[in-house]
Amino acid sequence: MQQYLDLIRHIKTHGNMKTDRTGTGTQSIFGYQMRFDLSQGFPLVTTKKLHLRSIIHELLWFLSGDTNIRYLKENGVRIWDEWADENGNLGPVYGEQWRSWKTPDGETIDQISNVLNTIRTNPDSRRMLVVAYNPGVVEKMALPPCHSLFQFYVAEGRLSCQLYQRSCDVFLGLPFNIASYALLTHMIAHQADLDVGDFVWSGGDVHIYNDHQQQTDLQLTRQPYPLPSLQIQRKPDSLFDYRFEDFEIVGYEAHPSIKGKVSV
Ligand SMILES: Nc1nc(=O)c2c([nH]1)NC[C@@H]1CN(c3ccc(C(=O)N[C@@H](CCC(=O)O)C(=O)O)cc3)CN21
Ligand SMILES: O=c1ccn([C@H]2C[C@H](O)[C@@H](COP(=O)(O)O)O2)c(=O)[nH]1
């Protein structure tokens, strides 16, 4: 994950000091891209130990269409706690937009199923997108989607994915976001009988919070390890039937975890 360290160094060198909604303050750049060849390893940050459990459960939760944190809590995942209301609801966030985007005439659109179907039947299509940023309901969401839009691309039997992330917390959010979309690309490729290609990450406001400067400096002193690989143990009949136990990360060697506060 040299790319991750290069991004941190780039922000520390060129970033603008900015105030932000949370009051913490950030050092920030606008517009950045990274490319990960998924056939060369699973892109997990190695300069701090990541909690892959949370990443897998969060993705399965998005894919199930759920927008209440109950499932996450039952599985010991706390990353969305601060944003939920007293009943655990987050409003019409990712799960709802991915699986049941509401149209003005009362229908719902399952964007994920549609995209998988197009990958299988018309892989040269340039319309294989999923949009989470729904301006009509964004005020009802606990947080407007950060990973706002993603697109798939098929060439030479390989499935690639590009994400546009409008806002990115480089220390806490980004390692999760990269791993999550890499995992999603593997799952969709698995279902469509394709190999994996590239994951392209594109960021808008890409920032290091002021209280994450030390933690990211520490990461720059650490030598990254080779990437692990992902093994999927079972091929369920549907994209929506994967279970936590189906995924195994092999050979994940990482430096010790680093704590940091999340700005709410
Ligand atoms: N400021 C901010 N940064 C984010 O990354 C973020 C938000 N807000 N709001 C919504 C979601 C929630 N996400 C989060 C929230 C917390 C962690 C976090 O605390 N991570 C720790 C512990 C991980 C764990 O318990 O599994 C870490 O060390 O990575 C990560 C992602 C990503 N998003
Ligand atoms: O998946 C996610 C979700 C959130 N973030 C970060 C990006 C920002 O630091 C905050 C959101 O604040 P806004 O004022 O709405 O931009 O959360 C992330 O990196 N990844």
From TrEMBL:
EC main group: transferase
Major localisation: cytoplasm
Residue ranges of every copy of the Thymidylate synthase/dCMP hydroxymethylase domain listed in the record: 2-264
Subcellular location: Cytoplasm
Methyltransferase as UniProt keyword: yes
InterPro entries: Thymidate_synth/dCMP_Mease (IPR045097), Thymidate_synth/dCMP_Mease_dom (IPR023451), Thymidate_synth/dCMP_Mease_sf (IPR036926), Thymidylate_synthase (IPR000398), Thymidylate_synthase_AS (IPR020940)
Family of the protein in this entry: Belongs to the thymidylate synthase family. Bacterial-type ThyA subfamily.
PANTHER family: THYMIDYLATE SYNTHASE (PTHR11548:SF9), THYMIDYLATE SYNTHASE 1 (PTHR11548)
Subunit-level organization: Homodimer.
Protein name: Thymidylate synthase
Native source organism of the sequence: Gynuella sunshinyii YC6258
